Amino acid sequence: MKRSFLWALVLALTCIGYAHAQTSITGKVTDAKSGEPVPFASVVVKGTTIGVTTDEGGNYAISVPASATTLIFSEVGHSELQVDINGRTVINVAMEPGANELDEVVVMGYTTVKKSAITGSVSVVGAAKIENKPIATLDQALQGNVPGLLSSSGSGQPGADSRVIIRGLGSINAGTDPLYVVDGVPITIGNMSANQGEGYSSPFSAMANLNPNDIESVNVLKDASATSIYGSRAANGVILISTKKGKIGKPQFTVNVQGGLSSRARKFEMLNRDQYIELTTETYRNSGWSEQRIENDFNRFDKDASGNFYDTNWMDDYAYRSNAKTYSADVSVSGGTEETRYFMSISNYHQDAVMRWGELDRKSARVNLSHNAKWINFGINSTYSYTYNNMPSTTSSYYINPAAAAQNLSPLERPFNDDGSYKDYLIGNGGINFVQANDLNKNSSSTDRLIANAYAELVLFKDLRLKTDWGIDYTWLLEDEWADLRADGSSQKDKGRAYRTNQRARRWTVANTLNYNKTIANDHNLHVMAGQEAEEYKTDWVQAAKEGYPSHVLTEVSTGSNVYTAGGNKSLYTLASYFGQLNYNYQNKYYFGASVRYDGSSKFGVSHRWAAFWSVSAAWDIAKEGFMSSLPVFNQLKLRTSYGTSGNSDIGYYNSYGLYSYGSYNGKNASYPSQVSNPNLTWESQAMFDIGIDFQLLDRRIGGSIDYYNRQTSDLLLDVPLSYTTGFSSQMKNIGKVQNTGIEISINAEPLRLKNFVWRVDAIWSMNRNKVKALTGAGPDEYVTYLTSGGTETRYRIRVGEDMQQYWLVRYAGVNPADGAQMWYDRNGDIVFTRSYDNHATNGIGSAAPKWQGSLTNTFSAYGFDLSVFLFFNYGNKVFDNSSYFTQHDGSRSDQNEQVSQMNRWQKPGDISVNPRRHTGQSTQVSTRFLYDGSYIRLRNATLGYNFPKSIVEKIKLSNLRVFVQAHNLFTITKFPGNDPEYSYTGENFYQYPASKTWLAGIEVRF
Fold this sequence. Notes:
five-stranded mixed beta sheet, 12 helices, 1007 residues
């Protein structure tokens, strides 16, 4: 009893002593310009994790240790402020607004720079425009948020690969993708699928492995001064992704949960039963069929118990679903001291496809740690993800592809018999029942991915630091495919076939940089960097397939009786680099920058393996000049310009080498030359000029930038045709030139900023013009003809003086009112009735590239509510709808269904119609008839949220509570008749997977 009393006394004295060691400080934080309170500002005791946030009135109260000397005040949109305590118990502060935007640090190449000191063209996309969106990949979130950047997927399938183009197409044969760098690690992008199976290729993007909610910001580098430091990998721009890092303060937990439903964003109608019977009957009569023959043809289809033909809506009832589920859950914690900071997260994202078959599920974890000491700083940024993808065939396999089969099948057909079993033959789809095939067949992939960066920085002297970075991007992809032996009409009927493909990709990078920063006489600011980098990229894949299975239950490759195929490959390339950079500014008013990089790549010929790339830039902030004092309206008026070079090495690893292929001849091993060498092959080279202006005015109520650029690509890496007498059809050479010029405009403004109401507007507009300057190949001004999948009709021809994506098509003249016949224009513009490519095909009828595009975002905040409405618009491009060859067949494919637009057809002399007289022998071959305007306006996203008042949140021991609802792809205005104009940047639509419209609700909790 006595011992318990003594322990209680000691504990009480300790608590009293601790209480006396604490000091309570209260105060109010206001805006220095308006005098209004600053809510949710962070107040932290310097050197500790002790901190609080201000309430809605800007008030705070904090208990600090007796040893505390300084409070740190910070808030997004205001400059950080450090205030000495000096024994005070009441500390009121006024924070300067807006300056934080220009003083924030932006990642640029291998270093960081204040936003106000940037001399190049850089766009910054913050976390608010990326996180909590119903998308699986980051590149989709960039659409409409970066001027000059076009993001377009070839499919609306979850996790599908997107094509990102920055400032136009700069190459014909080489890659056009930008370089992606995550926390200093260059990563692999593009379609990861290596499946060599039954046409089940799924366009699964490597970007789908990243969790967008882990991203703090994305910096898009566009001009030479920004990209040249990356040398031969930066010809198509650079996208730097910075993930979230820890911040000073006690542990801050964030839980974000959301869920919703998706359906097709746009729908178009196919013929129903009565319309199909009407048009088909008319077709047969126009073709001279007897009534008995017509009746016999229809009697091939089943009838219900009442003797009526079935009326099947294949798209709504069998191919697509209107309640595809999407849900995600993210949990993160961050915090730290001035020395050590941390951010950790785990997440699960799941998206059911709007197509009846398909899902994507991603689980990921991230750990970011950093420690700063007096003489050394070190840390690690790492993420691991596991992604499961299960999708039907939507990129090939015409009869199994639900997007194609659901449009082609007659509404008189049905997938099931009366007893519920699958029908074994469907008229008009090659006999294949796509519902049965996709129910029974399987096509899945699983991906493990690790992206990690570890660094250490030595502080050699006060102004000199040596940093080393090690990075790895490791991807392991496993694909499984099963063609079921029960699938009637399939080539695998009664056999079955199983494929398994295993692919690995490993990218190692190491970079060492020496940075010197010096301020001389308070006016001269100097930064010098020298560095070295090495990269190695390895890929390997192996595939095995067997057929002849005793049961559909046994689906492993090992259980098949006969080997169908086996194959594999290994590839490797290396890159070595040396680089340097100089940045200087005088009085933070005059800026100068220069960089140089020397790259050596194993992809090119021995005598041309090394090349140098460089840039120079300058900027002048006119607003800081004395003569501008009479115009205090300007907070920033920075004129900048740059010129420099970069390269493109995005080709095959061995294009410069003479290669042999191996196989069998007369039953014995054999080898033969398969590629002619070119020891002179080297980079495509690019030179870019940029001039722009950045401005902020009216206390930063209005800001933005305007840029003009001229991008010249020379020494194109082209497969130039060779005489077949050489034994080869082509050889890759450096020849040809392409030019891109454009204008980019970005505006942000706050038209209203009241005490309890803020209205913000963000607008982006950009245009790009592409022109081929020089080529060689099939003709004096013509390089190559792109062919359709059938290889019989041309779509485009690349010619000197024209757009690289210019169409080359027969011009359709409509329907002759006298007899319903189709008409075309010849090269002289005269109407003719015989279609001929030799006499009719011509360029100058439109391009797949848009003339301009942009976005408009309006954000409103009032009394805890916020509403954001994001519109994206695209104008002036053409889309060739290749699927119209089948869905607008004018009777030539009478077993197949058609679009409702076919009801507008010629029936009698004098009719003015879009579609010709129906006939089984009608021609629907390639012409401008199916070339459509691809312009559109889309409500990309609308979000309504509510932040609960601080008084309520604190009662339940939270720091913030937010609920929100949002709609994605709510509506689209377009003249394009197909699934979706957005997914047709390549210029051609062929039964593409449609975009999805999604409704979501979510909650975010912080404590």
